[in-house]
């Protein structure tokens, strides 16, 4: 763990986020921040609101109230395009790639390079290959392979490379290792660490405590739609994080403690 | 493999000769479940050889030209359908969309005396409008395209009847429109078209291969480009040669040679739509939406717009198909575009290798599959089989093609 002491400003910061779907309030007054060069793990039980929180950052769900600050300045994110313009990219667990397209086509999907009206395949292929090489990805044979022929780990790699391609500042990974085997999980985690070491801010949603402790610098634990605690990974133990996830509190950490958001337990 | 390390941009070959590499790539693709044009091409060759042996007249110049005019309307409708099929949707109304458009053409030309160009324009606009309506309903109301186009199928059948005063046959007399399916390109012009096409293809292929080499991208060298150019030249040259042969039974009385005008028309449509699908953002997004709609949406693609446009293209192409059908039949009646026109067009696309599950298909599939359907129809007709037998065989071939599609899909997605 190389978490340096208090990095300047968070790249992305949420304050007092409320979000309801109809009568169900999913997020209550949530605060969250992620710093450059760090992996921030976002943990919580099923239904704690992790995905909703991430989708609010990605512009997929509008927030009901609260503030979204990007590099210290308040911003409005109304669509995935707004988020992408700021440099926020979300890598979804699934639903991210088109099986019938190749790696290059997937990486540039929706943002194809063109010369005139014609797709500039050469530039896209060069850039895709360069990005994969920059991430030290050696598992992919050819960037013109169809995604349907790739393994789960390779798919996840392509999805992450796609997010990095756009000089993004925040990369949010939704359960990137959930469907992977041991070796592939290791590869993806190494890639996640490399992203942060390149100065990106990485938000990692995960259920797997081993993964969280292996790569993260900070941990943010959601409990029933409330932010239970945001702590440095080096300051907490495995058991404490599990308690935060399951009970919302652990000793002096948690919702009634000093690091909570003042919500009633 | 030699272990020569050179700093200059050289041809990066994987293993062995470039042609072996090309073959390897192809076999790899087949193994991955992407059968492409192979089944349709094999079927076409087998059918042609079979009919040739059974009925030598099948391979006569006259019959060869006939095949094109017989299959043209269906192939053009199938081209349009491929856009919709690529999205995993279906358009059951394309047949009657072609009928209604042909009806509009005939009515404004014959009953109102419009010039041919205005009539053709109105017919195509009719197709565009039908597609816009269908696409908008599918997208905005979220009704499955199967149901929307089934409704349109029935309604358009009624519209065709209304336009043609409950069943009158309207003859088409305009020389230009009749010429589409009934007149031939002068043989010399045919050869010029051939030369232009091969030269254009050669230019694009060579430039592509050169750029890949000079920019250091994975490539198989120039040989593959040359092989592809020569292959195209041989196939096209053979077709032009046969179509330019004399096919009049009494040449001194009336000479009949050259390719029918529908052949270059299909060629142009094939090139234009292939370009759109392979080289433009719109085409890329069609494949993306067909492959994974949610991924496309999250990539910021306007899925609704893509869908509406696909239905618009489909119905507009159906209108062009209707115009060809009107030209070939010299008339339009309420059953133009009815009976099995739509089903054969869908069949042609699927036989050609377009997947009904979306995401996979090319425009050339419509031509290949259309050729298979036309050859079965024509060849079995020559052999004296009844319409019933022909329909059973066509149906079996379609089932076979859909089976190949389903199986290759299973193969392509292991463990899913």
Automatic annotation (TrEMBL), chain A:
GO terms for molecular function: ATP binding. It comes from the Bacteria. Residues 12-249 form the ABC transporter domain. Keywords: ATP-binding, Nucleotide-binding. Gene3D superfamilies: P-loop containing nucleotide triphosphate hydrolases (3.40.50.300). This is ATP-binding cassette domain-containing protein. PANTHER family: CARBOHYDRATE TRANSPORT ATP-BINDING PROTEIN MG119-RELATED, SUGAR ABC TRANSPORTER ATP-BINDING PROTEIN. PROSITE patterns: ABC_TRANSPORTER_2.
Automatic annotation (TrEMBL), chain B:
The chain crosses the membrane at residues 36-55, 67-87, 94-110, 116-139, 146-165, 185-204, 225-243, 258-277, 308-329, 341-359, 366-385. InterPro entries: ABC_transp_permease. Pfam families: BPD_transp_2. It is a multi-pass membrane protein. It comes from the Bacteria. Keywords: Cell inner membrane, Cell membrane, Membrane, Sugar transport, Transmembrane, Transmembrane helix, Transport. Its main location: membrane. It is found in: Cell membrane. The keyword Cell membrane applies. Part of the binding-protein-dependent transport system for D-xylose. Probably responsible for the translocation of the substrate across the membrane. This is Xylose transport system permease protein XylH. It comes from Actinocorallia longicatena.
